[in-house]
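sry for the spam today, last one i promise. struct tokens for design, 89 residues
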């Protein structure tokens, strides 16, 4: 899908001077906001931005302040799983 944004030339030049590729910046902004809004997951962010790994995806999300969706219930579930695994030893 191609999307066209109309930005006045002088503003475009200033933005590019500070942000680099406006196309990539806009795509990242959309992906990060969709992730924050829980419309897409981290794997979809990775695919959308053609990132090389899950680590690169996590780094990008962290850079934009979009942290993993991890609730207290998730933590409790993980702790129980660790406890079960440790009791087997």
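last one done:
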């Amino acid at each position: 899908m191609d999307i066209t944004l109309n930005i006045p030339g002088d503003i475009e030049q200033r933005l590019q001077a500070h942000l680099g590729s406006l196309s990539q910046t806009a795509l990242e902004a959309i992906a990060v906001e969709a992730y924050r809004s829980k419309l897409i997951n981290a794997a979809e962010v990775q695919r959308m931005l053609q990132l090389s790994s899950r680590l690169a995806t996590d780094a990008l999300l962290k850079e934009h302040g979009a942290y993993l969706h991890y609730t207290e219930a998730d933590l409790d579930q993980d702790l129980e799983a660790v406890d079960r695994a440790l009791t087997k030893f």
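Residues 72-87 form the longest helix (16 residues). ok im logging off now
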